[in-house]
């Protein structure tokens, strides 16, 4: 190998090391959404751990009050009662107290990837809850719902309608859905996040980065082989990027 070849290898090693240090310094970087009382709205038990764990873990560790409304018990495979207990255990791992966890049992919210839920029913629950608990911010899925699941996107459509209501005080934020490459390649997603600079970021540092995995392990009924892989490869176990819903005519 000639001199230029050796220099090329050394340059690649140094560049890789610098990039790795750059990324490590970014992990733990947070631009949180405003407010102290926050409401997370999900569709199924395990959504909170699979998709929103960085948000929950960081906020609860810093003393914020995080409420969770889960609109179904995940009874698609007839395991609804089991999944209720798993949800409680997972929330405990994420630092969310049981008294702030509310699972809805209603025929309006059938766990089914082909079922769209009525926005009016979702709105009724959210508006009532926010008024009773003085919620400052509502967090949920965006228009793609991370995976395209119709139960997920139904929540977004309801919140999109709510964002146009000038009498609704809390601000509304949605979890950014990303491409398959970003979803399963944390290194690439971290670089994109650093360059793209989303409005709000929750990126777990070393003090909290095991909580999402511990929470997912509590959902034993859902731990098929590909979810074990998901736990260690998905960006949603380490980084959440949120955007505020903004529509013409909204505040």
Automatic annotation (TrEMBL):
Keywords: Membrane, Transmembrane, Transmembrane helix. InterPro entries: GlcNAc_PI_deacetylase-related, LmbE-like_dom_sf. Coiled coil: none annotated. The keyword Magnesium does not apply. One of its GO terms (molecular function) is N-acetylglucosaminylphosphatidylinositol deacetylase activity. The chain crosses the membrane at residues 6-29. Its EC number is 3.5.1.89. It comes from the Eukaryota. Pfam families: PIG-L. GO terms for cellular component: endoplasmic reticulum. Belongs to the PIGL family. This is N-acetylglucosaminylphosphatidylinositol deacetylase. It comes from Galendromus occidentalis. The lineage of its organism: Eukaryota, Metazoa, Ecdysozoa, Arthropoda, Chelicerata.
């Amino acid at each position: 190998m000639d001199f230029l070849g050796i220099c090329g290898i050394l340059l690649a090693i140094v560049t890789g090391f610098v990039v790795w240090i750059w990324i490590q310094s970014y992990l733990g970087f947070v631009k949180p959404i405003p407010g102290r009382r926050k409401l997370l709205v999900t569709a199924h038990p395990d959504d909170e751990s699979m998709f929103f764990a960085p948000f929950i873990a960081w906020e609860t560790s810093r003393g914020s009050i995080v409420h969770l409304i889960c609109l179904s018990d995940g009874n698609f495979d007839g395991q609804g009662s089991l999944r209720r207990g798993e949800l409680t255990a997972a929330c405990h791992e994420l630092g969310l107290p049981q008294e702030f966890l509310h699972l809805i049992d209603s025929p309006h919210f059938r766990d089914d990837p082909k079922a769209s839920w009525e926005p009016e029913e979702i709105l009724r629950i959210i508006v009532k809850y926010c008024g009773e608990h003085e919620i400052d911010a509502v967090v949920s899925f965006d228009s793609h719902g991370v995976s395209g699941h119709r139960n997920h996107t139904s929540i977004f459509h309801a919140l999109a309608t709510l964002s146009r209501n000038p009498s609704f005080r809390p601000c509304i934020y949605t979890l950014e859905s990303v491409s398959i490459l970003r979803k399963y390649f944390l290194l690439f997603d971290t670089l994109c996040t650093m360059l793209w600079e989303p409005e709000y970021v929750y990126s777990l540092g070393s003090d909290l980065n095991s909580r999402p995995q511990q929470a997912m392990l509590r959902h034993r009924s859902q731990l098929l082989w590909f979810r074990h892989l998901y736990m260690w490869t998905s960006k949603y176990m380490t980084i959440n990027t949120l955007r505020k819903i903004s529509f013409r005519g909204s505040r």
